[in-house]
Amino acid sequence: MARFLLTGGGTGGHFFPALAVAEALRKRGHEVFYLGAEGGLEATLLPQSGLPHALIPAGKLDRSAFRPGEFWKLREGLRRARRVLEEVGPRAILSTGGYAGFPGGWVGAGMGIPLLLHEQNAKLGLAARALALRARGLALSLPTPLPPFLEKKARVVGYPVREVRYPQGEAKRRLGFPEDKPLLLVLGGSQGSLELNEKLPPLLKPLGLPVLHQVGPRWAERYQALEEEEHYRVQGFVDVPLAMSAADLLIARAGAGTLAEAAFHRLPALLFPLDPKLDGGAQRANALAYARSGGMALGEFGRLGAQVMEMLEGKERYQKALSALSPEGAAGRLADWLEAL
């Protein structure tokens, strides 16, 4: 069996897809080594995974300002990545991008090790644009506009998600919501969204529909008062597969992982992407891609109530559109590609 090196992280959007592929490769009997970033989410979760791993510095280069400290971290990360690669000797590398996935991918490709790059968003990020030049293959979560020299090495494989579904009635009962009423699920990302936390409750409460609102762990106490009305439930963090199985409509930011999970669950969504100044336009590109598919729509605070009712009435139409974007089997397709490399 072959030995593979997986790298990427910093945030869950880059780490969890790689973890799903690692599990798929291990089930096939392959050896997997994970290269992550010091201080990234993976630094906390890798010790729990049982994967052999190493953590290195990974400078996060800013879009708007040069920060010397991050440059020196990157330089040290490249040096230590080479040492890890020489020791591990992988047959191929998967980088899921982000600043944590850059050093190992860049150095490994320079050493002649086949590199497969996975891009989660509908727009290539900074690290992905640099790595794509050296990658043997470019795996996309969604159809993404690319220059011709990258199109030749790219194909859509989807975004690996945790493929767990529950019957809707069972999921609603487990969460304590009535089965005979539509359930609205609000997600602002794993850390919550202050903007959505502030703006959505006054707009959703008058609808009289049950709401499960993930406000983020740091905001949970602050927004507990929203539960004065029985149908409005606030949690710092939710079990996403269970919550999406129960929900009839999602109201959310437009992170790649959230939208892929919603597509897997055939869950229509109203999207409020981050301001492009904050993420380079990645979430807006994701939102537009799913909206063009017919499975989701861009939300408008000014007419949110009407949008919610319209989408609930046309739920089956949105679900049919989402079935074409479901990422089911994505981890296996990435494992196949790595084996081929």
UniProtKB/TrEMBL annotation:
UDP-N-acetyl-alpha-D-glucosamine binds at T11, G12, G13, N121, R162, S190, Q283. It is a peripheral membrane protein. Residues 184-295 form the Glycosyl transferase family 28 C-terminal domain. Keywords: Cell cycle, Cell division, Cell membrane, Cell shape, Cell wall biogenesis/degradation, Glycosyltransferase, Membrane, Peptidoglycan synthesis, Transferase. One of its GO terms (biological process) is cell division. Signal peptide: none annotated. Its EC number is 2.4.1.227. Residues 4-135 form the Glycosyltransferase family 28 N-terminal domain. The keyword Cell cycle applies. GO terms for molecular function: UDP-N-acetyl-D-glucosamine:N-acetylmuramoyl-L-alanyl-D-glutamyl-meso-2,6-diaminopimelyl-D-alanyl-D-alanine-diphosphoundecaprenol 4-beta-N-acetylglucosaminlytransferase activity; undecaprenyldiphospho-muramoylpentapeptide beta-N-acetylglucosaminyltransferase activity. Belongs to the glycosyltransferase 28 family. MurG subfamily. Cell wall formation. Catalyzes the transfer of a GlcNAc subunit on undecaprenyl-pyrophosphoryl-MurNAc-pentapeptide (lipid intermediate I) to form undecaprenyl-pyrophosphoryl-MurNAc-(pentapeptide)GlcNAc (lipid intermediate II). PANTHER family: GLYCOSYLTRANSFERASE, UDP-N-ACETYLGLUCOSAMINE--N-ACETYLMURAMYL-(PENTAPEPTIDE) PYROPHOSPHORYL-UNDECAPRENOL N-ACETYLGLUCOSAMINE TRANSFERASE 1. This is UDP-N-acetylglucosamine--N-acetylmuramyl-(pentapeptide) pyrophosphoryl-undecaprenol N-acetylglucosamine transferase. It comes from Thermus oshimai JL-2.
